[in-house]
Amino acid sequence: MRIELHKQNDTETLINIWYTGSIQAHDFINQEYWLSQKDAMKNKYFPMAETYVIYNQAKIAGFVSMVENYLAALFIDTAYQRSGYGKELLDFIKTHKTKITLKVYKENTSATRFYEKNGFKIVETLVDEHTDHEEYLMEWKKS
Asked: What are the percentages of helix, strand and coil residues in the chain, rounded to 5?
C-alpha cells in the first residue's frame, strides 16, 4: 500500500470508484442523482479538493478528498473494500489534521459505524438539501 497526491490523469478512475461506490453505499437514493453529479465531481469537486490516492501495487484501490478540514470523499474500489484501505487513508489524513469534519447519510449505517470506530462523533443531524435524506455531521479531533 502506498499513498500519493492525486494526479490529473487518474481522475476518470477516481470518478468511476466514486460513482460505483456511491450507488452501492446509497441504494436509498435514486441512481440518476449520482449520474447527474459526475460532471460536477470531475470539474468542480476534484479540482477544489486535496485528493490522495491509495494503491494496491500499481492499481488504484481508493482515494480520500479533503477541502481544508472537511473530509469531502472517502471511497474504496469495491474489489478492495474491507481490506483496510479506508482506515489507511483516514489514518494518513489524521496525521496532517487536528480536526476533521464530514457528513454521512444516516441510512449509510456501515459508513457511520466505520467513522465511529475510527474516533468520529456525531455532532448534529441535518437534511441534505439535494436528496432530502437525513445525514450526520461527524467530527474527529486529535487528542
From this structure: 40, 35, 25
Beta strands in 41-120, from DSSP E residues, in sequence order: 50-56, 59-67, 70-76, 99-105
The total of other beta-carbon atoms located within 10 Å of residue 134's CB is 12
Contact 52, 64 (CB under 8 A): yes
Give the pTM.
Answer: 0.92
Q: What does the alpha-carbon distance between residue 108 and residue 6 come to, in Å, rounded to a whole number?
A: 26
The three three-digit cell numbers of residue 55, written as one number: 494503491
| CB-based contact 88:129 (threshold 8 Å) | no
Phi first, then psi, for residue 37 (nearest 5°) are -95, -10
What pLDDT band is residue 18 in, cutting at 50, 70 and 90? very high
Using the 8-state DSSP alphabet, how is residue 89 labeled?
A: H
Residues 6+ apart with CB under 8 A from 87: 118
pLDDT the model gives residue 8 = 76
